[in-house]
Predict the 3D structure of the following.
Amino acid sequence: MRDLQVAKVCGLAGVLVSLIVSPFWNYDPINLPKFLLLSCGGFLGLAYLIKYSKYFKSSKSDFLIFAFLCFTGLAIFLGDSPLPQQFWGTWGRSTGLLTYLCLFSFAALAGRIKADESRLLVRRYFERLSYAVTVYSLVQIADLDPINWSQRQMVATLGNINFVSSFLGLACISFFARIISKNLTVPSRLFYAIIASLNIFLMLHSESIQGIAVLATGIFVTGTAWINQVFGSRNAFFYGLLTLLMGVMTFLGTAGVGPLKTFLIQETVIFRLDYWRAGVSMTLNNWLTGVGFDSYGDFYRQYRDLAAAERTGPQRITNTAHNVFLDIFSGVGILAGSLFALIFILATWTSLQIWALKPYDSTDSVFAALFAGYLTFCMISINQIGVAIWGFVFLGLVNGTRLVEVNEKSKSNKIQTDQIGYSGRGLKSIKGSTATRFSWPFAKVSDFVTLTLAMVVGFALALPPVKADIDFLEAVRNKNFLAMREVVDRTSSNGFHRDRYLAGLLETNQTSVALQFAWNEIQRDPRNFYALSVIAFSSEADLDKRRLAASKLKAIDPYNRALIDELESLEKGELAP
């Protein structure tokens, strides 16, 4: 029974976190509400793991997760980046320590789900969530969205076409496994084929290659497992090798290398290579503690190379490496980063065993394919919370897979179990199944109180940056600078709020106030590029402060030739305007 309750917690949390948005109250209407809900669910999961530990067998990755969090905490305190930013994450991302604590909470919780029926329930939650994302995406491309987002694009509730594309690609992996399953009826296969076709249409419409890459990975691993079980390991080897070579050639083509570059070259892929090189440089130069959790953007200018600075101009910057592993390695150093990578390597090794021992259309094999798709997402994208929660659930499910049933009877029973609850268009067919009945998840009132308190703790820890964002947007709407100042003086405010406040002061000719605030901001965060620029280029600023700001700017952005030339011209004229 506990097993089924854990599946419900993971599935429902994933649905809610992926769907929640706050378009009317937050400056960041996507990530911050997801962050708040993730924290509530993550601490509920932690309490569940601790309180009911006697009912669950530990997962293989638990020690690695614990060690990663410990090393990360040490790196954060030894690093130079502001602690609030490392804990809550930077604005627009919210992928700091608290987020990863909660993501790993879900991974550990999902690793406890052992029963076939419970694991299948998580898959149902994910697939039905994808129906909602598909429908909303269709509404958006039809220009019928009732919400007036800042950009009229297909972003669903994930905030970016790349994230939506990747999510739909993950969903298609699950649908593909159902389509090729020999146990489903023709109407069922037709239903999933239609949904998958709609998702592929949306991915192509988005013009984002991330979803296609994610789907291609899932098809590759599922197809290889299918060929291995139907046509033998030799044919599977040659199919896998050929497909892998095609994938490598395709990626090189998108990066402007190889014979396919004329047809496939993608500017965004070339940009990503710039970001990856900067991430590697940050890691090697700060191997012990990193530059700070979720602080990549503060150091990108310093560690990008000349080619990156000149490719489209020095104004192209980013606050993420667009690679989850490089974000972690550059943020917290090689030791913590290696532990993070080992958790995923363990899941990859388990996935290989699953594909060798389990039927290709079993739920376990599907989760392994979904994890492979998420791994591809991690290599080329940002760990957006609405996608990441599912990726970490898949990670936990893979690491928690039982691999002892390898005889033909167990395989046959597994296939039968995995098809429970689906017929026709995928609706539940078994009445009274424990997966379909509501059951009170708490045996005692004390259990309810304990888990509720855990959610309150998670809510309280994540609330400060969310509340600061709400209050700052309200102050901006009212053009109330006193209220803005009250917000930016909070520990929970972030660089975006402070830069926006500083820009507002300059726009309204409050120069003296702006200069004083910029100087205070530099004391708080010596790498605030905008505050340094305001002081360096203001004729009203103190001469010594201007010289200090100019020297810091040149150190922070050494390949920005236009900036350095301008600063040197000012210095030659004794920093005249």
Q: What stands out?
A: Residues 324-357 form the longest helix (34 residues). Residues 87 and 98 are 6 Å apart (CA to CA). Residues 405-441 have pLDDT under 50 and may be disordered.
